[in-house]
Amino acid sequence: MQLWGKIVQGHRTVRQHTLTLEDSDRPLTKRVQSAMDEMVMELDLPRPIWFKRNEEDIEVFGRTEFHQDHFIEPVRFTRFEIELIDEGQ
């Protein structure tokens, strides 16, 4: 399984990055959060605050979004999206 992250400004993707999630017995949301740490470093973003809603969105829809209210410092984009990609599909 892979995690795809993209920075969106308006309706346009301005940067993106994909990485493979580790295989382990840890819960999916914990593996996504660990992978997101690596992704934000690669995309040179501050780490967003992970709310309960983000966890629920990942578990139900396989994707979630982060907006300005998820960041402590101001950001220059509309949203940061992450989405799970199942290579078996």
Order of helices and strands, N to C? EEHHEE
Determine Rg (CA atoms, Å): 12 Å
User: Main sheet, how many strands, which sense, barrel?
Assistant: 4 strands, antiparallel
Q: What topology, given as strand order, has the largest sheet?
A: 2-1-4-3
Quick one: overall form? Answer: globular
Average pLDDT level: 92
- End-to-end separation in angstroms reads 10 Å
Tell me the β content: 25-35%
Number of domains: 1
Strands, count? 4
Number of distinct helices: 2
Based on helices, strands and strand pairing, what is the structural class? alpha+beta
What is the helix fraction of residues, given as a range? 25-40%
Low-confidence stretches: none
Task: Give a verbal description of the structure.
This protein is an alpha+beta fold and 89 residues long. It has one domain. 28% of the residues lie in helices and 31% in strands. A hairpin with a 2-residue loop joins strand 1 and strand 2. The longest helix is centred in the middle third of the chain and has 15 residues. The mean pLDDT is 92.
